[in-house]
Each structure stands twice: as structure tokens, then as C-alpha cells.
Amino acid sequence: MKKAVFIFSFVFIILLNFIFASVVINEFAVDSQNDRDGDLIVSSNDEYFELYNSGSSDLNLNGWSLLLIDTTNETHVITGTIPTKGYFTILNPAGTQNNDGQIILVHSNGTIIDRVSYGSYNDGNLSDNAPRGNSSNNFNECLARIPNGKDTNLDVNDFIKTACTFNNTNNFVLINNEINVSCAFENENVKLSADVNATNISSVVFSYNVNGTNKNASGKLSLGSLVSYEYVINSSELVGGNVTWNVYLNDDFGNIFKNGIKTFYVRNKTDLIINPPNPDGDNGWYVSEPLFSLISDFSAIRKYYRWDSIFDILYTNPFNLSEAPNGAISGGHLDINYYSEFNCDSIINETNQKQRIKVDLVNPVFKNLNPANGSIVSEVKNISVFLDEIYNSNSGINKESVYMRIDGNVSNASISFTDFGDLDVFISHTLGNLSNGIHSIMVYAEDFSGRNSIVSWSFEVNNSDNPINLIFNSPQNISYNSRRVLFNLSTDKIVDSIEFINYNDKSPKWRILCKNCNGYGDDKLRVENFNEGENFVSVRAINGSNIKFKNVSFFIDSKKPKIIKTFPFKNFATNGSNFYVEFIENNLKEVSLSFNPIEILNLTQCFELRKNKVCSVNLNLSSFDGEKINYIFNVSDSLNSVISKEVEVFVDTKSPILILNAPQNISYDGKVFFNITISEKVILEYYDESEKKWKRLCNNCDKYGADKIVKKNFKPGEYKLNIRAVDSAGNSDEEVVNFVNI
What we know:
The strands form 13 sheets. Strands 39, 40, 41, 42, 43, 44 and 45 form a 7-stranded mixed β-sheet that branches. With about 750 residues, the protein is an all-beta fold. The longest helix has 10 residues, at about 10-20. It has 2 helices and 62 strands. It folds into 7 domains: about 10-160, no CATH class; about 180-265, Immunoglobulin-like, CATH 2.60.40.10; about 270-360, Immunoglobulin-like, CATH 2.60.40; about 365-460, Sandwich (Immunoglobulin-like); about 465-560, Sandwich (Immunoglobulin-like), CATH 2.60.40.10; about 560-650, Immunoglobulins (Immunoglobulin-like, Sandwich), CATH 2.60.40.10; about 660-740, Immunoglobulin-like (Sandwich). Mean pLDDT is about 85; it is low at about 1-15.
């Protein structure tokens, strides 16, 4: 400010000057960008000058004047009163003020109270002038003291170009503070930004609060059409819920300015849930088909997934590998992509997430047995077999697991391997020439997922002129429902002994059936006990150096399936979701569900639960709404079938109607009122975004707070509640309310 100093001899004149010096030229616009006089035209008539009174009393301005000096001089006489700590605005003053000039505030007694020179007006000291008065937008329309009444006696320090406040507190203007996305997600970065219309900036600080933790970070300068500062919140800091933030500006003179608190909502990223959560095979491989579920933020309108490059699939229920390329057949390295869709003014997709899983559903397959099974050869010096992993993306043969038994004895010292690509292996065993007789071979191998296979076969080495003819009637290559299996075999001559071995025993060894005989079980009933599951049996007839072998494989399943539990329970209400049966059966063939009673479905979604198995299905029962239906499960193995008890349930597929009267989208002072009615008896609960958990309001109720006043305590802050009503069948209705508790 440039003030003329007058020395008067009268003390009251000095006192008056001190009082009047509290009034300054505070803000003015000489190149208006807004229509302020209401004539719908932006012109020089919208120029204005604002005075500010920092004193402790109101002042009468009658007779005061503004001298408006540029290329032509004008005088505007003032009439009125300026309040203490208040403003007096002169709209459309006399004449038209240029972008470069001087303004002088003169008391009615002729005393100069305040003086401002700006732009290129030459008052003898151009370096002290305030900026030019020209403007190009709303954000540089005014010259203003920041803060109000700031007076260092240097106009260049006291005035900056900024947005007009017009009878309001002058301030640095933080404009367009915003985030860079309309939908914020916890797995994506969020950029905060604020345009700043100010000079003499010392620092700009972004303050934000995530999940109760407050952080401050310096903004990064970004120059464009406006001075802008920005800060990026890394996704690693974000969690689902509301994030509050503000921008603070510090100037070179120690002043701190801030904008109002802003809030944006961070949506929980979509999570892929795999059941079982940990691979059930070796080296990170699943060896049984897992079940997948997608869990996303409650505000998601749809969820999608896709396998590799196949088209997107709308998620409705937990799914398995049926849509994956060869997934349900072979597995392999499978990439599952998933995301959710949200309505944020427009439909916006969450960033796609990807997870790779490794699934091996097929045991190694043995091919090209050499010598061939059942063959008769004159000599054998090499035994070989090809191990095929079948599918190109399976786990591959673990060569360290391979071993071979020759006639029951482990022989792996001289096994050699030939690789076929990354997965398959050809194994061979070189040995001296085998003696006459039948020889049994067993080869065991695992892949890297832990899946294993055993192959057993036999062949006869016969360079004798007197072979044995062994007739094998039983056992046969079939399934048996008893562990006691009938034996019936004979020879064409009396032999020294007839023996057998079961290679699926824990410790396989040859057992004598008879000596000096020509049959076993051909003249009377003979049975032997065998293991549950697969049994690979070799029988040999020995007569001196002549040996004759016969092999047979059969399956024993003597235990019927056992049903443990079915759901839904008797007389329960259901909307068709989560029908399941829990049972015990090691050799499962099929599980089916029959209801009402002609509808029959085969269940494919099955998983292990402790030592039991569970198969489930979701039914569309909309055509049975309001009726009762009966259902049964049928669990079968290869030989037996068990049916569950018939269960009667009530079908309810209609959702309850929730009417939320309170709370409302308003501000509360202290306690928050609840008033809710529902069309039927439900469990009523709400989800508080700030606490991340569901809270129960009432059980088996159709109203809450409707009969008597119900209030709940909430701490001061902003809240987003998701209120949900769930009926006994699992149908639900939800409402969302946002409020502020002060």
C-alpha cells in the first residue's frame, strides 16, 4: 500500500487517521468475466471495487471517494456504511477502469486512506505494482489481498490474481479438486488432484484417511492451463469403504488455506475363492476338480469370468472347470480371468484380474508293453513301456518315482529313460535272458502332481517242447460286490503246484493254492479274500522247469454308499439354492436328485468334506413358488445304489419387500433413528462400511422402529449402510442409505 503521510497538529485528527486506516481497497475487477449487474451482458458495467474494514467498529463512508486513475481519470463518490470485519462493494463505478492504473481511496476530509497501483501504471516505482488487471477466465478475474486486509506496504506482495470472492473472505482458490476415476477400486491407484489459482505457494499437501488411518503427502506440481498439484494413492494402501481427503496450501507468509473435506468410495476388489483353498496334489497341482466362487463389493451389478481367451461368462453360482478348454477332462495350466461391473454414472468394469491354477485330472497312461501282455516268446532280454501324460499341459512324469518289479522283485538298477518332449517318458530295462515260464511285470510311476498309475502284465518265455495248458475260468475281468471271490482253474496235466499273487497287496507274494494237482476249484467250491478296489492277480502252474502264467484284473466294491445328510431339511423353506447330499463312498459313479417326483438331475458339483463327499446343485423352482415339493437323492457306485429319505420342503422364490423410512440421506445430530417395515418375517441386518461387518437388528421380524422409536448411537462421521432383509428361504431385499452424524 502507498499511503501519503500527513502530520496534523491535532491529536483527534491523528486518532481518526488511525481508525480510518483500518479500511483498505481489498479486491477489484477491471476486466470482468461475469454478469454482476443482472443485464445478461458481461461488460465494463460489471467492474467492481471492494473495501474491507479490519477495525473493531462500523464506519460511515459518506463523502468518501475513489479516484480511478488510468489514461482518463474518474472520481466515484461513496455513500454508505462499512461494518466491522465486513465489506463494502462498489459495482459499476464511474467511468471505465483500464487494465493498468491506480486506485486511491480518499476520506471525506481529503486524507488518502489507501492507494493501489497495478499493471504498468507508472507511479514512480513500477517494481512495487500489483499484477495487471486483465483476465481470461473466472480464476484470474480479480486482484485481491490474500488474506483479507493484508498490508505490507508493498502492492506486489499484497495482491494476487485470483477468482473473485465478491463480499466474501479472500482466499487462495483451490479449484477442480477431484479424483481421476469415477469408480475407485482397492486394486487400482487413485490420483488426487487440485488446480491452484495462487502465487507465493510454499507447499501443497494432500491429507487423506483410509480405514481410520490418516496420512499426509506432498503434492506434485503439474503445469498446464492452470497450476495443478496431484498425488497418487497406491492401490496397496486402499481398502474397501469411504476415503476422505482434503487439500492444504501453505504460502510464503505462513498462511494455511484448505478446501472442504471430500469423500470417495473405494469398491472392494473381486476375490476368487477356490474350494479347496490349497491344491490337493503335489507341487501346487490340483488333482481333483476345484469349485470356484466370486465375491465382490455389494455395489457390483454383475460379475464375469473367462478361461484363457474364451468369451466372458456371467457369474451366477459357483462353477467348476466345465467351461474351461479341456478343463473338466484334462486340466493343465489354466488361466482364469475375472472382474465385476459397476454403475458409476456409466457402466464401468473393474480392472481384470487373473489367476493361474494347475490342474491334473488324469493319471499317467502306460502304452506299448513289451513283451506284449499274454504273449509267448522264446527269449526276453529287454522289458519296456511308454509312459504317456496324455495332455500337453499336465504335470509330467516324475522319473524319480518310477520303479519296476520283475516276478515280484524290485529291479530299477538298470532302468533307462528316453524323454519325449517335456512330459512323456519311454522306460526300458535290459536284463539277461529270462528263464522258461511265465514272468510278471509291474511298473509304478507318478507324475509331478502326485497322480500315480500301476501297470501289470505277464508273458511266457517258452523254449520247451512240453508246455503246460492252464485253463482259467474264475476270477474274471469284472466287478465283484464281495471280497470273497470264487476260484476255478485247471491244467491239462498234474503239475508240481498252482500258485497266485495279488500285486495290489501291501506286500505281494506268491501263495500256493495246491500241490501235485491238476486244478483248483474245478471239483469243489473254492474262494479267496481280496482287497477293496483294484486287484491285479497272476496265477502260475509250475511243473519242473515249465511254468505257465495267466493274469486277471478285477474290481471289488463290497460297501454300499452311505448317505449322512441331505439339505434342505424337512419342512424348511427354500428358494432352490444349495440342495446338497453328504455321503461316504470311495468308488462313486453317480449322484442324482429327483423332485416332485419326475424331475431328475445328475449332480456334477462335488467336493471332499473331511472324510466325506458332498454334491450340490441350485434349482430353478420358480414354477413351484408357494407350493410344497418332495425330493430324494440317489448315490450310486458301480454295483450298488442308495436312496435318501424323501423330504418335503416349502418353495418360496419371492424376495421380501423392504421399506426404509429411516435413516435417511440427511445429517443427524447424535443418535440416528431407525424405522423399517418388511412384507414378511425376516432376519434384518445392516452392513456398516466403516466397520466392515454385518450387524443384526432383529430376528423373525417384519418391522423395526415402526411401533416404537428406535435410536442407535453412531460416532461422528460419514456413514454408508447397506440394510438387508433375508427371509427363511434365503431370498433378500437390500437398501442403501448415506448419512452424516455430527
